[in-house]
Write a structure and sequence with these properties.
Blueprint (H helix, E strand, L loop, with lengths): L9 E6 L10 E6 L2 H11 L5 E5 L1 E3 L5 E3 L2 E12 L5 E17 L7 E5 L18 H15 L5 H6 L2 H11 L4 H9 L3 H16 L5 H4 L1
Parallel strand pairs: 1-3
Antiparallel strand pairs: 1-8, 2-7, 3-6, 4-5, 6-7, 7-8
Length: about 210
């Protein structure tokens, strides 16, 4: 278990559009770019084995910047293919706010980060007292049908509330901007409401961006 004191001031970051990691979620990644292969190798040498996932964003001038909030994960699974690629899994630990990007000699990006706003992430799984599971699953069934997606409905009916909402937030085919809104939701109830809004607008053929901007 990672405690607040274990969280470093500087972490390596992996900017990947649409890849959302949330606390206590699991994100599988296929690593093949040389700079990120180096990042994984350096990560494995550390005690905490932390990598920060963050959404990149394009500026009007074409420069790639980073969103201010990301989520750090602990590398919990690692395998190497015959041609030198890595298959890893990150377990979500805590969100962070980027203070500044750190210049150095690593081929990958690193950032100085602040954890103070997200101490709740290190606690127990969140609850959502207002969650109406039958209504949510009915909406989800319509969305999956419209998108041509399949699901193990028995597992969805039995899943813990946080696992259900966060897993769907991570896996649903929404834009990077929408994924960022799900990441920044202050609590599980707000994330569920945001997810429902995105699903409803997708079913109506509209753009969730129109609501979330």
């Amino acid at each position: 278990m990672i405690r607040p004191a274990d969280l470093p001031e500087t972490i390596p970051v992996f900017p990947l559009p649409g890849a959302l990691l949330l606390p206590r979620g699991r994100l599988p990644l296929h690593i093949f770019e040389p700079r990120y292969l180096a990042m994984v190798e350096d990560c494995l040498k550390t005690k905490t084995r932390l990598i920060g996932m963050v959404q990149p964003r394009e500026t009007p001038g074409g420069e790639t910047r980073l969103q201010s909030i990301g989520c750090v994960g602990r590398l919990t699974s690692f395998s190497e293919t015959e041609d030198g690629r890595y298959m890893i899994t990150l377990y979500g630990i805590s969100r962070f706010r980027i203070r500044e990007e750190v210049q150095g000699f690593t081929p990958y990006r690193r950032c100085a980060v602040d954890w103070a706003s997200f101490t709740r992430d290190l606690g127990q799984a969140e609850e959502d007292p207002r969650f109406d599971r039958p209504a949510f699953l009915e909406l989800l069934a319509r969305f999956f049908t419209a998108e041509g997606l399949s699901a193990d409905w028995d597992s969805l009916k039995e899943a813990e509330t946080e696992l259900l909402i966060n897993s769907l937030s991570m896996l649903s085919p929404f834009s990077p901007e929408d994924k960022q809104a799900l990441l920044e939701a202050p609590d599980l109830g707000t994330r569920r409401e945001t997810l429902v809004t995105l699903i409803e607008f997708a079913l109506r053929g509209g753009s969730a961006d129109e609501v979330l901007q």
